[in-house]
């Protein structure tokens, strides 16, 4: 709890306050999380326990909701995700089709570049993802510097695109890096990226949580 609010509800309220979503739900396989969300005024959907990735879980949850054109997977460990980022996603999501998905990248700090919990992204000239890695890519062989991009924990799909992604078999790259977005690239789906610069990061470790508490509690 941070300021008497579960971490996932910080994300939930950011999503609601952005005003860009028709419906916001927390997909979980843990009844404790579902009850906590509902106690704090949120909506939760229970899913199965065998999902290998968050997107697989979102797909199950989406089948319990009305028919929407687009489905967005906002990860529950991004409590400082800016409303402006979510609004930018809403603008860009119309660029995707059933063979592509949308995500966001931002500039990584030197510390983040070398942190395996911060996922790095490499894009082509059209802003499409070439690769994602926990390693600092691209490798700076000559030491000339250059900005490293980090991946932000959000995905946008068409409804059919989400189903297509979840019907794919996880490949060797996904299993090795433990990054589900590599499944799309391995099977030929495009990942369109928009750039939004902000200092927020996912909370993956106790140290990340303490930094977040200092940010919001002073």
Order of helices and strands: HEHEHEHEHEEEHHHEH
The chain-level mean pLDDT equals: 90
Return the CATH architecture of the domain at 68-217: Alpha-Beta Complex
CATH topology of the domain at 68-217: Spore Coat Polysaccharide Biosynthesis Protein SpsA, Chain A
Estimated share of beta-strand residues: 15-25%
Question: What about the largest sheet?
Answer: 6 strands, mixed
Low-confidence stretches: none
Residues in helices, as a percent range = 25-40%
Distance between the termini: 15 Å
> What is the count of helical runs?
9
| Class derived from helix and strand content | alpha/beta
Which overall shape is indicated by the principal axes computed on the Cα atoms? Answer: globular
Strand element count = 8
CATH homologous superfamily classification of the domain at 68-217:
Spore Coat Polysaccharide Biosynthesis Protein SpsA, Chain A
CATH class of the domain at 68-217: Alpha Beta
- CA radius of gyration is 17 Å
Describe the structure in your own words:
The protein has a domain at 68-217: Spore Coat Polysaccharide Biosynthesis Protein SpsA, Chain A, CATH 3.90.550.10. It is of the alpha/beta class and 218 residues long. The model has no long low-confidence stretch (mean pLDDT 90). It has 9 helices and 8 strands. The strands form 2 sheets. Strands 3, 4, 5, 6, 7 and 8 form a 6-stranded mixed sheet that branches. Helix 1 (7-18) crosses helix 4 (83-92).
Short overview:
With 218 residues, the protein is of the alpha/beta class.
